[in-house]
Amino acid sequence: RRDGKGKYNDVPSSCATCSFDLIMSDRHPNIQSGSTSRPRYSAGVHNSRRPRSTTPFPEFPDLKTHEELYNFSLDYSETFWGTLARSRLTWSKDFTTVTDSSFETKTFGWFHGGELNASVNCIDRHLNERGEEPALIWEKDEPGESVFYSYRKLSETVGQIGNMLKNSGVKAGDRVTIYLSNSPTAVATMLACARIGAIHNVVFAGFSANALAARINDAQSETVITANTILRGGKLIPAKKTVDEAVTHCPCVRRVFVHFRTEVEVPMGKMDINMDKAMASEPVDCTVENRGSEDTLFMLYTSGSTGAPKGLIHSTAGYLLYANVTFKHAFDYNIGEKFGCVADIGWITGHSYVLYGPLSNGATTLLFESTPQYPDPGRYWEMVERLKLNHIYLSPTALRLLLKSGDGYVKKYNRSSLRKLGCVGEPLNHEAWEWYHKVVGEGRCDIIDTWWQTETGGICISPRPSEVGAEIIPAMPMRPMPGISLALVDNQGKETDAEKGALCIKKPWPGLARSIYGNHDRFLQTYFSNAPGLYYTGDGAHRYNNSHFQIIGRMDDVLNVSGHRLGTAEIEDVMDDHPDVSETAVIGFPHDIKGEGVYAYAVLKDERKSSKKEIEIELKSMIKTRIGGLALPEIILFTPSLPRTRSGKIMRRILRKIAANDFENLGDTSTLADPDVIKFIVDKHKELF
Ligand code: PRX
Q: Which PROSITE patterns does the UniProt entry name for this protein (predicted)?
């Protein structure tokens, strides 16, 4: 199928159902194909605690290798997941059916008839054996300050918050919006919701008041929980002020709990309750609300290619089981080790690998409140030395940033406690992979590049190095996790044997989100219509040797900026509201550190009338206010028009190529409605760089 130059010659250059350019291994600067010719490494040879060739799944002692285990997980998936559900979770009522899920019939249920509670699984069942062991290590923003929370202390805090919420009228099924940064209070609040059956809705505390309000209103959340201020990188972030602004637009909100993270005083209104005081007077025992397997544990908003952010719904049993199993086996976690996922609880990584995966395994989990460069780029490694972390799990953006600061900040600290080095969120390029492996891990630790999504609930592709000696190929997540059956599909949505295509998952697995809050049709349309019978991830992938997968990037109009998902349509909507702007197009462009940066094209209503500099400032301020700083464009290019097909469709593919300085591959532009605009945009782009 290849023409010898590494390009496909019989595949149309763009996908029929989206604007993805299938010949796109060159789209992302960090993706270099041909990884098979790179050096390979053997997993766990230096620091595994496991003897060679024993199955990592104690539930299946006869399955001696990963291959056997993997095949079994697909061939006997009900036995596989049913056995794990009974052995790894504690149920108040056993389930009667493992699953009725089918992507053909679009049914998604797991463990019907069962009842359980996530907080019992994350806390109560560990109390006898591990009550005094650390559950949480809160690495505060203040450098060098950390607070240990035992399982007992966490249990008591959860009990008090649970009672406080119940007494103020929060009931099972209610949505509770949490706008807090990483802290024991935040984690205990999430678990308190789980305990009383309320649905937590964590909103990343970097989102603006407007973005927060949109999420509160969509969730119809009566309760909001925030802090007077948040501390991040030594700066005070006025969280309560943002919430005050947001709730003026949220008629559904009836109470706002305020935790005092700092000494800063904030005005308290009629709806506001001092959370620290309110919980202090509550008993530590809180009655458990048992939940049906399919009852919602939480919702979490994420960006899609069109429309408003979607509130993905995760189930209690299936999600918890998947977070539990993948945490244990992707990272080869052993009890007693300290696991350091530095993600914020506002993202799915924080949900699955700061909270639910580690705590349901009885692990000690880090809550990192700061930033990688505060007070200097040695922050992570100083923390590793001081806390003796055994695992660290971070983003490629942070790695690339730290790599640029040189090896000195790493080598200054003792990293001998580290065993596994994970990353997630974006493609991990070769340079960062090698640096992580050789400099950070001293060639001793396995690199675990994990691919997954808010929707998948937990890790779906990862090198799975718990089999000692398993090969690890740099810069790719490689192997599907047990129970995950991958497929690549072509432009027609049909499964293909080709090396590249749209990444799909064939078989149901328990961690998959169940719906989009209030819009199940959108859920079905987004994930189950492009490739009927399969879960459609929205990512493109490259398959090597028929088995190992490398992720190319998003195929739709979703950006991945520093591992954070942003819908181009969301940013365009804000910019289009500027009175002097007639239309806009937002795309991603390759960015050395962030992986992808935001590049906006804007057409003005009247070029002569407006000052472009002023409009640029106003546009940026609108984006910051309405979405948040993370969506700010690096570049706004003003153009008299946008390249369109004769049928009026904006040619984003061409805009992306220009933004990536790939002028040779613009393709045939003669069929555009106004071919001259390309030359204008290219010249302007060159001026800007
Ligand atoms: O494009 C993929 C990218 O992040 C997207 C999911 O984003 P989100 O739902 O915010 O979850 C991020 C954390 C799980 C994916 O569709 N992505 C995630 N992990 C990787 C990745 N891209 C390449 N390599 C990865 N390891």
A: AMP_BINDING (PS00455)
pLDDT digits (tens, 9 = 90+) for 216-234: 999 999 999 999 999 999 9
The token pair at 69 is: 């285990």
Cα–Cα dist 82/660, whole Å: 48
Query: Dmax of the chain from CA atoms?
Result: 76
* Cross-strand pairs, 296: 315
For the Cβ of 539 lying below 6 angstroms from any atom of ligand 1, the answer is yes
ipTM: 1.00
Query: Residue 175: phi, psi to the nearest 5?
Result: -95, 130
pTM attached to this predicted model: 0.90
Q: Whose CA is nearest to atom 6 of ligand 1?
A: 453
Output the DSSP codes for 76-121.
Answer: THHHHHHHHHHHHS--SB--SEEE--BTTTTB--EEET-EE-HHHH
Give the residue, by CA position, lying nearest to ligand 1 atom 13: 425
Does 449 contact ligand 1 (Cβ within 6 A)? Answer: yes
Q: Report the alpha-carbon distance of residue 165 to residue 123 in Å, rounded.
A: 19
Segments in 543-629 forming alpha helices (H): 568-576, 612-626
167-179 pLDDT per residue, tens? 999 999 999 999 9
CB 362 within 8 A of CB 337: no
User: Which atom of ligand 1 is least distant from the CA of 565?
Assistant: 10
- Helix ranges, 393-488 (H): 396-404, 408-411, 430-435
Contact in structure between 567 and 305 (CB atoms under 8 Å): yes
CA neighbor of 349 nearest in space, from 405, 397, 418: 397
Beta-carbon neighbour count of residue 647 at 10 Å? 6
Cα distance between residue 444 and residue 449, in whole Å: 16
Is the bond preceding residue 375 a cis peptide, omega within 30 degrees?
Answer: yes
Please write the tens of the pLDDT for every residue from 253-309: 999 999 999 999 999 999 999 999 999 999 999 999 999 999 999 999 998 877 789
- Cα 563 to middle of ligand 1, angstroms: 7
Distances (CA, A) of 161 to 220, 470, 523, 680: 21, 45, 33, 59
The answer to whether the CB of 453 is under 6 A from ligand 1 is yes
Residue to mutate (ligand 1; options 451, 454, 505, 555; most atoms within 8 A of CB): 451
- Tell me the residue type at 193: C
The per-residue pLDDT for 669 is: 78
Residue nearest to atom 21 of ligand 1 (CA): 426
Best residue among 551, 558, 568, 594 to mutate for probing ligand 1's pocket (most ligand atoms within 8 Å of CB) is 551
Window from 619-623, 644-648, 683-687 with minimum mean pLDDT? 644-648
pLDDT in tens, 69-120: 999 999 999 999 999 999 999 999 999 999 999 999 999 999 999 999 999 9
Residue ID of nearest Cα to ligand 1 atom 22: 426
Res 42: pLDDT: 75
Indicate whether residue 554 lines ligand 1 (CB < 6 A): yes
Q: How far apart are the C-alpha atoms of 319 and 263, rounded to whole Å?
A: 37
Check residue 595 and report its DSSP letter. Answer: E
Q: Which of 58, 59, 125, 60 is nearest to 91 (CA)?
A: 125
User: Is the pLDDT score of 28 beyond 60?
Assistant: no
Contact (CB, 8 A) for 426 and 560: yes
Q: Is 294 in the pocket of ligand 1 (CB under 6 A)?
A: no
Q: How far, in Å, is the centroid of ligand 1 from the Cα of 300?
A: 15
